[in-house]
Design a protein that fits this description.
Layout lengths: L1 H15 L3 H27 L11 H15 L7 E3 L5 E3 L2 E8 L5 E8 L5 E7 L10 H5 L10 E4 L5 E6 L5 E6 L4 E6 L2 E6 L6 E2 L12 E2 L2 E2 L1 H6 L6 E7 L4 E4 L23 E3 L21 E6 L2 E7 L5 E8 L18 E8 L4 E7 L2 H12 L13 E2 L7 H13 L6 E4 L20 H9 L4 E5 L3 E3 L5 H8 L14 E3 L2 E5 L5 H9 L13 E5 L26 H4 L3 H15 L9 E3 L9
Parallel strand pairs: 22-23, 23-24, 24-28, 28-29
Antiparallel strand pairs: 1-3, 2-3, 3-4, 4-5, 5-21, 6-7, 7-8, 8-9, 9-10, 10-14, 11-14, 12-13, 14-20, 15-17, 16-19, 17-18, 18-21, 19-20, 25-27, 26-27
Helix pairs in contact: 1-2, 7-8, 10-12
């Protein structure tokens, strides 16, 4: 229809205009604007779906119900405890075997005292029906952290295993055997408590549910299992006694000091959600998730700070409540002459394992520990923190030159100009529209003469076109995310029917990074940098405008297991490409809309 309308409009204007040559030049621009506007509004109004509500999340409902049951029953006791004499202490690791007395499922428990001053706690099923996803650490951490031998065993009651650690030996860990609970103390004051309220809940896939399920390689599709009420979700409560404020768990359009989610003054009715999404016109003052997720939370009070990192990349929800109950009065908490608030949180994720890092010390010390663990923020180039000029969309190479000259004419300093998707040939990344941008290298060199740079957009979706070399190569190398039946996943995005490269595949990482070489990305120069957009990933035809959770990634893992690291894996491959395109390597500039722990590297 747009093409027909264009032809009718062209014929009418050319027949009736006194300036047919001028109109003939303008009409293609009008057509381009019209088509792009249609695409834009289709994406907003035809395919847009609301974000998931808590009522639609079955594993969320179960974990909240479990917490409500535990809270309502004053005699409730967590069913998880250590098997007698299973705790072993060796090389900075306290390990043991937990058991759920209700279903007799066993779990491997490990507590690591780390050289960086943090504590790591890992819990995984001992004999799962299928392996649980434990690859998040490979993406988020710089390396597997080393354990320290600088700790001392503290004599205590038989049902408690205790240690002191830290430079001044003023930090201690108390592991309660039955029911299972872990307390971390500083200066004889409790700072972080795990399973304080008994909400620890490790759901397991059940053998009887596997009959008739879909198998992909050696994996079992969790979509069917979840529909039957079977799940591998995890939940745990984490308390910060004596801390009235907690911060972090971005990205939310919310207050700096996190609000309560289960009653209280100015509280939210829903928990905070961590699930990377392309949310157009997101709500202000809301716990709903948007583009990025970092499951890091810091508690702070006068003279003390503590933090936790919940290392899980599946859909995650966090409840926050604050109380003034007297439960901790006997624990010597400083109240500075005021009634003391404590913050209690409840974390639950759809799949994976429990992998928690606890950080202690001053805020500067905690951030140093976090940096040693996940990487420090890369030092940016000067131009990265200067003024950048970006809009949708510059029409052509001449338009770019005129905008650039306009800044000079009006004596407005700027360092970088950006090109959105319309600079490409039919929304195919690593290409240029030959009519609009006939000489991209000259365009960049003209900017270079003034010390300026250029950024082009490159998104993770790939137009399904056998004549498009990026699609053909990726398909031939089997690098796309798959449907559960093994076929390449197809979805809708800016180019139309598209597929998505699986950047969690090491081969895809290597292949993609090579696409930024100057002989591969034709028309690029060393002053051309990259904007990674739409990498939550955004899929117009998918639920919540993202990938279905039962898609299959490298290693047979479902998308539900690793959703929040998709953008990080894409960002990583792009950054490597920009680093390696020159000899010697040079610092990259890559703006990523989606992020996770480690994106700062």
């Amino acid at each position: 229809i747009p093409d027909d309308l264009y032809e009718i409009l062209s014929a009418y204007v050319l027949q009736n205009s006194k300036q047919p040559l001028l109109i003939a030049e303008v009409l293609p621009i009008m057509k381009s604007f019209f088509l792009n506007t249609v695409d834009f509004f289709k994406s907003l109004f035809i395919t847009k779906q609301p974000s998931k509500s808590i009522e639609q999340s079955t594993f969320f409902r179960r974990h909240r119900a479990y917490a409500d049951k535990a809270s309502a029953n004053t005699s409730f006791v967590s069913p998880y405890s250590f098997i007698k004499d299973s705790i072993v202490i060796k090389d900075g690791i306290i390990s043991g075997c937990l058991i759920n007395s209700e279903n007799h499922v066993e779990y491997i428990f490990e507590l690591h005292i780390l050289e960086i001053g943090a504590v790591r706690i890992r819990i995984n099923e001992k004999n799962p029906l299928k392996p649980r996803y434990d690859k998040v650490k490979d993406w988020a951490l710089v390396e597997d952290p080393l354990n320290t031998l600088e700790y001392s065993h503290i004599s205590s009651k038989p049902e408690v295993t205790s240690f002191s650690f830290g430079k001044e030996k003023n930090q201690s860990i108390l592991i309660y055997h039955s029911p299972f609970r872990v307390e971390i103390w500083v200066d004889n004051i409790p700072t972080i408590i795990l399973n304080d309220r008994g909400f620890f809940n490790f759901e397991n896939l059940k053998e009887k549910e596997l009959n008739g399920s879909v198998r992909v390689g050696t994996t079992v599709s969790t979509a069917l299992l979840e529909a039957k009420g079977n799940s591998e979700s995890i939940g745990l409560d984490i308390s910060f006694p004596g801390f009235g404020h907690v911060y972090g768990i971005p990205e939310h359009a919310s207050a700096l000091s996190l609000k309560e989610t289960r009653g209280g003054n100015d509280a939210y009715t829903d928990p905070y959600r961590l699930y990377n999404l392309d949310v157009f016109k997101y709500k202000i003052d809301s716990p709903t998730s948007i583009y990025g997720s970092i499951p890091f939370m810091m508690a702070h009070r006068k003279g003390a700070s503590a933090a936790v990192l919940w290392l899980n990349a599946s859909e995650t929800w966090i409840d926050v409540i604050k109380s003034k109950e007297n439960k901790y009065d006997s624990l010597n908490l400083p109240n500075f002459g005021k009634s003391l608030n404590s913050t209690k949180t409840h974390w639950f994720s759809e799949s994976g394992i429990i992998d928690i890092f606890a950080f202690l010390g001053k805020p500067s010390e905690i951030f140093c520990q976090y940096g040693l663990l996940t990487g420090f923020t890369a030092l940016p180039q000067y131009f990265a923190i200067s003024y950048h000029q970006c809009r949708w969309n510059y029409l052509d190479q001449k338009d770019v030159a005129e905008v650039d000259e306009g800044f000079d004419r009006h004596d407005i300093p700027y360092d970088v100009i950006w090109l959105d998707i319309e600079h490409t040939d039919g929304k195919k990344y690593f290409t240029w529209d030959a009519d609009k941008f006939p000489d991209p290298e000259k365009m960049q060199k003209d900017l270079m003469k003034k010390g300026r740079k250029m950024v082009t957009i490159i998104d993770p979706h790939v137009k399904r076109d056998k004549d498009y070399y990026i699609y053909k190569e990726a398909s031939d190398l089997d690098l796309f995310v798959k449907e559960s039946n093994g076929q390449e996943y197809e979805g809708q995005c800016w180019p139309g029917i598209s597929s998505w490269i699986d950047y969690t595949n090491p081969s895809a990482q290597e292949w993609w990074s090579k696409k930024f070489a100057f002989d591969q990305y034709k028309g690029s120069t060393d002053i051309l940098f990259t904007w990674n957009d739409m990498n939550e990933p955004s899929t117009f035809s998918g639920p919540e405008i993202t990938m279905p959770k039962d898609l299959i990634h490298y290693g047979g893992w479902e998308h539900r297991d690793l959703h929040n690291i998709y953008g990080l894996s894409y960002h990583s491959a792009t950054a490597k490409g920009l680093i390696n395109r020159t000899d010697p390597p040079r610092r990259p500039f890559v703006l990523s809309r989606s992020f996770f722990v480690g994106s700062q590297r």
